[in-house]
Sequence to fold (76 residues):
Amino acid sequence: MVKTLHPRNYNDVYYIGDYFRRGNAVLMNLTSLANDEARRVVDFAAGLVLGRGGDIDRIDTKVFLLRPSGVDRGDG
Fold:
């Protein structure tokens, strides 16, 4: 399952972490955030992914896919 999230502010990183720790891939769409706040969310996500042994992929400008360990991209 891929959970798509559109954080409104940095406080929404709680939901990113919660879904990711449950083993779900998370698609973060940060397009509604200012650049500095989006950077903070990406920094959080990068630390989360590194600490949990997953991967992070940039899909588009301000759109990122977080994949827990064992979940591949599925692009063949």
Helices lie at 13-21, 35-52. Residues 6 and 12 are 9 Å apart (CA to CA). The mean pLDDT is 93.
